[in-house]
Design a protein that fits this description.
Shape: globular
Largest sheet: 7 strands, mixed
Helix content: 25-40%
Radius of gyration: 17 Å
Number of strands: 9
């Protein structure tokens, strides 16, 4: 019997894996720290395009409050979200990573808001957000939990705000999702993501591939999402 890729995810295993990883950019990026600058630049360009193309976005590319979901040591918070948001909340289940965010220079400048040391499925936000950023973290949720989580995001994004998903894309020859037993995660296809977004009550306003990464890595795709009821 062939199991669905996401059904092989075991919830304790991702946490165990990440607790064994050093709290460094190299650790966060799986031994490819050189892609961090390319990644951040691509994300900033994507946000700027959203603000230009959609009049309901901030004309100054600045959002009142954002949240970095599955933030790790705050690489994206420091490099991207702190530059486009007045305040950034952080969701990160690994305590040693969250501690780095707490101790970061940005925290002293008042840029860091709430730091939630919890997983995405258990997160109970206290705020609504203009920008909800999900990157390289959703693969640890099974499909049904991901739908539940994205519905939660749908309920806490402000009018005119954005839910961003930036994730690896499966390149399986048969068009299937791929399970990685090392960190107990699944790499989904574009088709699967679109099915999940529809079930979550979200619509895609813009999508594109990240450019500039080494060809031996998975392709990475952005999705800019809003609640279907808003469109």
């Amino acid at each position: 019997m062939v199991l669905d890729a996401d059904s092989q995810i075991s919830q304790p295993d991702p946490l165990t894996y990440w607790e064994s990883i050093p709290a460094t950019v190299n650790g966060m990026l799986g031994g490819y720290p050189q892609i961090s600058r390319i990644d951040i630049r691509g994300s900033l360009n994507f946000v700027e395009k959203l603000c230009r193309l959609h009049s309901s976005s901030s004309a100054t590319n600045q959002f009142a409050r954002g949240v970095d979901c599955g933030a790790g040591i705050g690489r994206i918070t420091a490099g991207l979200l702190s530059k486009v948001c007045d305040i950034v909340d952080v969701v990160e289940p690994v305590e040693k990573f969250a501690k780095v965010v707490h101790e970061a220079r940005l925290a002293g400048k008042g840029k860091i808001g709430e730091v939630y040391v919890t997983g995405l499925h258990d997160w109970e936000p206290k705020e609504e957000y203009d920008l909800i950023w999900n990157q390289w973290c959703l693969g640890h949720l099974i499909d049904t939990d991901l739908v539940t989580y994205l519905r939660k995001c749908r309920g806490m994004v402000k009018d005119g705000g954005w839910i961003i998903v930036k994730e690896n894309m499966s390149t399986d020859a048969e068009g299937k999702d791929v399970f990685d037993k090392v960190d107990s995660s699944v790499t989904r296809t574009d088709t699967k993501f679109r099915e999940i977004f529809e079930k979550s009550g979200l619509v895609i306003l813009k999508t594109e591939l990240q450019s500039g990464f080494p060809k031996k890595l998975y392709p990475v795709r952005f999705y800019a999402l809003r609640p279907a009821s808003d469109q």
